[in-house]
TrEMBL record:
One of its GO terms (biological process) is transmembrane transport. GO terms for cellular component: plasma membrane. It holds the Pfam family BPD_transp_1_N. It is found in: Cell membrane. Keywords: Cell membrane, Membrane, Transmembrane, Transmembrane helix, Transport. Belongs to the binding-protein-dependent transport system permease family. Residues 99-325 form the ABC transmembrane type-1 domain. This is ABC transporter permease. The keyword Cytoplasm does not apply. It is a multi-pass membrane protein.
Length: 339
């Protein structure tokens, strides 16, 4: 790993720590301001006031807010995120069980968004100046205006209910055996176990939710790539390549795309962060057992430990995505490494 990349990683990691502290403090304080009594929620409905008061003392809810945060933060550093009020299970176990499903869905959706966005951006640029460009531009605006949950409902009704082509409930079919847990990622575990039937079934269950998410992230990629290509085509080396008789297709793919892709990569990182957070509604619609479903159950039951941990997990994932994109940008751009 080169020196500039290491320096970038060190700088970003130094900013991650205070960011996580601020986010955790904000989450903790905001949730404590809600009119929810965690002690009462953790006891049966017929619990007496004395039992609730005793539980409040046991949970430390009678302490000052900053002291409560200090205790929670200290436990969190040691890997103890508390116990779920509703599920009566360690929160870390619940999050680790559902996080791989959400990561798989987000990665597959981002892969679709990248392919669709790059090909669409190339088509938009190649068709510039004609009637086709106007139609494609209007189409990208239309795609941009439709949120992921509407795509999810549309795909469910069309491909799941009406045409009965793809499954749209859960992560696996009822008669499909789940492979032995190795990594926690269902697709990877299926391949490692040599269980192709489970792999294909899991993949089919992910198509509709991932495409619904990907379609909402693809239009900005298309438009920024088209704009970047237009800027790159004003550079001298493009004119020189054309004068040397190089075909337009080769100029586009071999020369212009490499430089135009860098601004697009930055946008893709931002889109991936939004897409990861947008899995919540899509998971609910498709009954997909990821962190989104866990979060909604926690909100429904006022399960503060889960809400805090899932919110912090989303923050960590977005920060990690940002770091990876910055590193890729530095690796792909020699000028930044020299600077």
């Amino acid at each position: 790993m080169s020196g500039p990349v290491v320096k970038l990683l060190m700088r970003r990691l130094l900013t991650v720590i205070p960011t996580l502290i601020m986010v955790s403090l904000l989450l903790f304080c905001v949730l404590r301001l809600l009119p929810v009594d965690a002690a009462a929620m953790s006891l049966p409905p017929n619990a007496t006031n004395d039992e609730i008061a005793a539980m409040r003392i046991e949970m430390g809810l009678d302490l000052p807010l900053i002291q409560q945060y200090g205790i929670w933060f200290g436990d969190m550093i040691q890997g103890d995120f508390g116990t779920s009020i509703h599920f009566r299970t360690a929160v870390s176990t619940l999050v680790l069980d559902t996080l791989p499903a959400t990561i798989e869905l987000a990665v597959m959706a981002m892969g679709f968004a990248t392919v669709f966005g790059v090909l669409g951006g190339l088509w938009l640029f190649y068709a510039r100046g004609g009637a086709v460009e106007v139609g494609l531009d209007l189409g990208s605006v239309a795609l941009l205006s439709i949120p992921e949950f509407l795509w999810a409902l549309f795909f469910m009704l069309l491909f799941g209910v009406s045409l009965d082509l793809l499954p749209f409930i859960g992560r696996l079919g009822s008669g499909v055996a789940r492979p032995e847990t190795i990594t926690g990622f269902l697709l990877i575990d299926s391949l490692l176990s040599g269980n192709m039937a489970t792999f294909m079934d899991a993949l089919r269950h992910m198509i509709l939710p991932s495409v619904a998410l990907g379609l909402s992230a693809a239009p900005p990629i298309m438009r920024i790539l088209r704009s970047s290509l237009m800027d790159v085509y004003q550079e001298d080396y493009i004119h020189q390549a054309r004068q040397r008789g190089i075909s337009e297709g080769r100029i586009l793919i071999r020369h212009a795309l490499k430089n135009a892709f860098l601004p697009t990569l930055s946008l893709m990182g931002v889109q991936f962060g939004f897409l990861f957070g947008g899995t919540l509604l899509v998971e609910i619609i498709f009954s997909y057992p990821g962190m989104g479903n866990l979060m909604v159950d926690a909100i429904r039951n006022a399960d503060l430990p889960i809400i805090q941990t899932v919110g912090l997990t989303y923050c960590v994932m977005v920060l990690l995505i940002s770091i990876v994109v910055d590193v890729l940008y530095l690796v792909l751009n020699p000028k930044l490494r020299e600077a």
